[in-house]
Design goal:
- This protein has a domain at 252-439.
- The protein is 13% helix and 47% strand.
- The chain has five helices and 34 strands.
- The relative contact order is 0.07.
Length: 439
Amino acid sequence: MCKLSVLLPYRALLALLFCWGCVNGPGGANTAAHETIPAKHLSITDSGAIGDDKTLNTACIQAAIDQLANKGGGTLEIPPGIFLTGAIFLKPGVNLQLDAGAVLKGSTNLLDYPRTMTRVEGHFEDWLPALINADHVDHLRITGSGTLDGNGAPFWQEFQTRFKANPKTTNLDVLRPRLAFIQNSADVVVSGIIFTNAAFWNLHFYRCDNIVVENARFEVPQGVKCPSTDGTDVDSCQHVIIRGCTYCVNDDCIALKGSKGPFALDDTNSPPVSDVRVSNCTFERGNGVVTLGSEAAVVRDVSVTNCRVSGPINLVCLKLRPDTPQIYEDIHYQDISLQSTGGMILQIRPWKQYFDLKGQPPPKSEVRNVTLSGITGSYGSFGIVEGNSNQTQIAGITLQNINVQLRNERLKIADASALEMSNVSVNGKPYLPQNSSPN
């Protein structure tokens, strides 16, 4: 060993020593890191990680995170290469940087994601952590032009196989890790990252405040069923900015979430989603551009501006659960360019999948002050505005300064008084409320 150490370059020797510590126990890793690795910046290759798309690097990456945290924080760098890993857990003061050409790729072995109580679909479940996890990590930065790869194909196939055998199969029946889960944190920035091949949701925030997601791309393969690969899930969060991002997913592009069920308004773990700003984004594939629900009680003060929709995606997607008292208010879409032959401009309607009244009477819900202005281009259909019968009050839906070409210009509305129109043109003709068809 002494002779070998003379011949090896100094950096390589440090990497060997550190990786030996990762495998053989925390004592060796702590000693090597404290003596040789700067506290403020650390490459995972310095800690022994190997970017060959084969070596499992979880232990070395986690040890590097812990070392940075123990030394007061710093930036963990992912250099070029394909680094296979299971779940890792960021610590306060530790940021993550993915360089160009860097790929942090998720293992497909469920044992590499130790089950834990985690927030999913509006409640807490003994389920899988994400590939990247952060809890109570204020001022977190996840930046760079590298890639988080969920390696999702076998997970998608497993879900499809289970669902084909039993159409009642739900998301929670098939364990699949998210790509990133950030919770209970303030002042968080995710910038420039490519999120690809997520096994389940891509980027999930829960109970965070002051979030910026910018210039990121969320993508799954075209022509492949990749169930529940939401782009960005904003769960019980406030003061959120999403700008300059591109979405090509197989479920909702941006989903605003919270609690569900007849007692949702009493759920202190699920404060209202509020002050969400989406701008200058491109939507190529997905179910909804910005979707409220499927689990959400109170969502207010949302704006979507200067965005382009090039795929058959529902623009305004408000899911109304018959088992949940919901308030959706002050939701605004402005200056949206539509460039597709499919998708609905308005999809405000009941969402009755997996609902449970728990023996309670059907709750009341409200949708109020929703505006669409400056909507142009070509699309599939005008859509539908309909609440749960005898439960939902819809008022203040305003459409103004709209000029679109539609394959189906019919707008199905349950209550014409809920809709106001001004300067709306469809297929080259003024579009009047009486053209809409009642329920």
